[in-house]
Amino acid sequence: MVSSRADSAASLPLILDIEDFKGDFSFDALFGNLVNEILPSFQEDDGDPAEGIATQDTLPNGHMRAPSDTAKLVQGPLFPEVDALLTLFKDSCKELVDLRRQIDARLQNLKQDVAIQDAKHRKTLAELEKGVDGLFDSFARLDSRISSVGQTAAKIGDHLQSADSQREVASQTIDLIKYLMEFNSSPGDLMELSPLFSDDSRVAEAASIAQKLRTFAEEDIGRHGVNVQSAAAAANASRGLEVAVANLQDYCNELENRLLARFDTASQRRELSTMAECAKILSQFNRGTSAMQHYVASRPMFIDVEVMNTDAKLVLGDQGLQVGTNNIARGLSTLYKEITETVRKESATIQAVFPSANDVMSILVQRVLEQRVTAILDKLLIKPSLMNLPPVDQGGLLLYLRILGVAYEKTRELAKDLQVLGCGDLDVEGLTESLFSVHKEEYPEHEQASLRQLYQAKMEDLRAEAQQQSDAVGVVSRSKTSVSPTAHQQISVTVVTDFVRWNEEAISRCTLFSSLPATLANNVKSVFNVLLDQVSQYLTDGLERARESLTEAAALRDRFVIGASVSRRVAAAAASAAEAAAAAGESSFRSFMIAVQRCVSSIALVQQFFSNTVARLLLPVDGAHSASCEDMGTAVSHVEGAVRKGLLQCIDTVMAEVERLLSTEQKPTDYRSPDDGNLPDHRPTNACMRVVGYLSRALEVAFTALEGLNKQSFLTELGDRLHRGLLNHWQKFSFNPSGGLRLKRDITEYGDFVRRFSAPSIDEKFELLGIMANVFIVAPESLASLFEGTPGIRKDGLRFVQLRDDYRTAKIASRISSVAAES
């Protein structure tokens, strides 16, 4: 079957070749190659394209519209080559099948070849792997041998290096022993030494060897327990290196002095390289301490007396401590800037010369603070004795404290500047504090003593000023009939402001000197307590002086009280004196109210100072803030106690004048007008107008001076006293109905005035007084209903109804007997 197909295929013309499928295969190209020989003849039989356009319908997409049946009959077959194409396609399919079989056969052969080659390759890889494993084993053995050889070589090298080091050490030791024997030959003999120790070009080497020999010799002596007593004892010693130690000590001292001399010479010439070389060699002697100290001590600012005098002149000038703290502060600032600049220049030299520059800077800064700064502080700060304070006219303790504060602040700024320049391990801050330790020990006591001294001086000045004013205005003595308001020193808020200003300055110094919160709180609390004592004492004394004026005025009033049976001339003189006493009382009243007002302002000033400045410094310490608040409350309560006493005296003064005006101005006819047919007078009585005018004038200052509870309690007490005084006054008169109307008008006037007190209890009492006045107005038969309708007036009304001029004639007692029985 296969052979027949092959024969049939062989008989067919060859259409496809396997080469057609190699490379870049394209089906479109293969198909075109198959049909190109047939399709061109078909395209030529299509006819002229123009005719086709005329006879056929063309669709918009380029395809031809199918012809109608009539057209088909006329045109004939549409695709006459279809049979040839079908035959071509069938033959092509057969050839494709045959080509696939050929390819399959080739692939089978290739698979077999690949399998054979893969087996060979695997065999070769196995052999190679076996050979590689052998090579790895060989390399491992080789590496082990190499490592062993390397370790052996390293050991040999270490031994060689150790041997070389030992040889070098042995050589150096031999040299050192030789040098040591030279130094140990005879005491004090340094002439037979090797040239090394006298060669200036090998000074560094000589210094190093000398130090090694000295260390060795001293250790040897220490091991044998032999002490070097003297050169003679060393010479007589049978063994040991005592002679060597003594000679080495002498040589080192001589060498060190020689190097220091060379260093000084180079320093004068500013030869920094030579200075650095000498400093490096000298560092082998006691770590170079002698060179460092020698350099610092040789600075001009430590040895030149003129520099010290210039410092004092710059800060104090020609006036000494009296030059003023501002000038001293400026002088210290200038001096400390100069010192800082000098240290900065020295720092540049030190950094270039000394190996241990920080150590030299530490010595320099310490010397600056302990010598130059201390010298000027000793001139500035002369600590006064608390038992013998300096006089105020020379500045007092305050001058010392201000200078102390300025010096402390400026010196701390200097310490910070020096710290920036570099001070090594030196505690600059601690050293600065030590400069002021003597002054800070008793600082709180000095601060409090200064505040008390200022207070005493202020009080003396105020007393002297008051005395001068009194002498100027000719203050009358107490034996006269008047009291001058200027006879006593008045309270001044300005003075309290001075107290607060002093205390604020003192607290600022407390803040400056106290670094620990607990210490600061204790110092601030003690200083603030001084302020509380001063303000309390000053205000209390001022209030007492104002009360003395009230007492003197009261004494004048009592002195000129006269009886009824006196001559008209004596009565006129007494009335004039009483007027003068009343004027003195009113003036004293005003003075005390002004004093109270100033007390309130002063206390508010202290409280504000406490809130703004003191409180925040006390809060970090438990209990400090509350304790100060309690102390402040105690001080204020003392002042309030004096105020309360004075206000009661003020009320006595006011009521005394009210009683005087009522007794002199109130006429019997004011409330018992004659029945002359004239219209009744509905104006307040003259006495009422005088009393209300006096009260308005006197209390005008009270309304301004008092506030809060003080004002309320004062006005309430005054209103109550006025109410009782009027009741007692009216009981001296009898009333007819028109007089009752006049009385009601007076009560209305008094009520309108006391309504300004804003005291409801007093308003109610005067309202009841107005109602009670109706007992003089209503008809006798209406009195019972009046009392029954207004129970609040029953008690006083039953007394006042007896003052009716018709009380007996109208038998009013029997008419109100039932009301009287109920009460």
From TrEMBL:
Assigned keywords, A-Z: Coiled coil, Exocytosis, Transport
Gene Ontology CC annotations of this record: exocyst
InterPro entries in UniProt: Sec10-like, Sec10_HB, Sec10_N
Transmembrane residue ranges: none
Keyword Coiled coil: yes
Domain of life: Eukaryota
Swiss-Prot/TrEMBL GO biological process terms: exocytosis; Golgi to plasma membrane transport
Signal sequence annotation: none
Pfam entry (one): Sec10_N
Residue stretches making up the Exocyst complex component Sec10 N-terminal domain: 83-199
Domain Exocyst complex component Sec10-like alpha-helical bundle: 205-813
Similarity field: Belongs to the SEC10 family.
Protein name: Exocyst complex component 5
Organism: Apostasia shenzhenica
Gene that encodes the chain: SEC10
